[in-house]
Amino acid sequence: MWTGQEQKRVDACDVVVVGAGLVGAATAARLAREGFNTAVLEAQRVAGGATGRSVGMVLTGLDGHYNQAVSTYGRQKAQEVWALTVEGRERLVNTAERLEMPVERTGSLALAVEDAEVDALRESADLLGEDGFDAWFGSSDPLNRGFRAAMRQPDDVTVDAAALTHALLTTSEVAVHEGTEVYHLESENNGVRVWAQGRTVLCNGVVLAVNGYAPLFDSYFTDKVAPTRSFVFVTDPLDGVVLEQPCYADRGYEYEYCHQLPDRRLLLGGWHRLHTSNQETNPETEPDDVGQGGLIRFASRHFPEVEMHSADRRSGVMGFTPDGLPLLGRLPDLPQVYFAVGFGVRGLAWAFVVAERLVALMLHDANPGILSAARLV
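Above: the chain's sequence. Below: its structure in token form.
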């Protein structure tokens, strides 16, 4: 069981959180509320990774449709997973409102790009309704943009995820060090020495909230987290409103999503999963044109008025686990190092649920349940 200690030094703290995305911020804030001296080390900048590339869509469930989850996990487990993301979504809403950050319950649209996807959306909507979730299916295209069908989940929300992360860290008693890449972790005197750019920190526990970069920290994650490049195109402000609510299309190895901001800029994002096994441990080695090509084709087909060639292009790294569920636990060889990684494209809905379970594991040795890394051993 992890416990804090009272002694403090200039280069010491109770716990170091590696990664300043929303998951890392939520975990650090919760530890600080428990009275632990907590520092966040971030290689780039706050919300500079997957959080900042999420375009703020807080979506219920997992990557893939509900009928697929029922087939993969069974009805009871799929229902439990979806309920956890509903809980996480509502906790995010409550936190944003408490911090006076804008959050909007826009709902979301899952779109069928091909005819083969129509039945999957129809079946998912039926199953969701039977299991107590609010979902609506329509066999036509509500956007009139060449889609085959749509499923609406009216309670999903949008938020400025980067601004929320900044606000959460700013209002918590947490020291944040940007541009501080962590190079190595080693056990020392029942604690952990953290070797990072420009500083060394001796602490009693470490949290890795690095999502797709996990395999770069420890070989334990090599077969458990597949790093995947994602891309976001941000257009100039459009002449009018083309999307009343965010939408996404999930086609197995390709995933596209789009959301129009209040200033009428359109954000289009996507990813293409290249590796399902024996993946490269460095996500930066994946060719940019694979993911971008699919996203550009999607945009030209369904949003032909958008000038993609002049859009601002950004990229990031996400992490996928073999079964699609986040991974919580501690490193076998460094039991004072805990982790929460592998969130796919739905990390915003998981952040606050994961933070609670991870801190409960650290302080009370509580079982993370279906999110436990033990399931992949």
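The radius of gyration is 20 Å.
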